[in-house]
Prior knowledge:
Shape: globular
Number of helices: 3
Strand content: 25-35%
Strand order of the largest sheet: 2-1-4-5-6-7-3
Oligomer: single chain
Amino acid sequence: MPGEAAIASLTIFHLGRMIMTETALDGPALEHHPETERFESSDRALIEECLMRLERALPQPTEDVCDARWGLVFCDASGARVKTFYLDKFGEIGILDGATVEISDPSFIEWLRERYGEDSVLI
Length: 123
């Protein structure tokens, strides 16, 4: 993916699927919700795996609305955002760098849930 070499860190945001909100959350609302969990890493292998899984998810433009429950923010060494990706709790609708997309491969959300979701040993 373009800009991949410039990425130095990754922050993963997660708001549990059982938490109700009054309106659909966009990326900034997810990041600032008081119950959102945050995982930060500069592990190159993890960053590369996330980028690879994102590419395999085959995001395609859609007019649907994303109620973000997951967020991945990739930053360069100075902390500037290079790429953002937000995803609904079903792993079907996302926001990739500001554009709403539909996801055709469920393995991305399955991997996130396994590693960082409610059933994860990391929480």
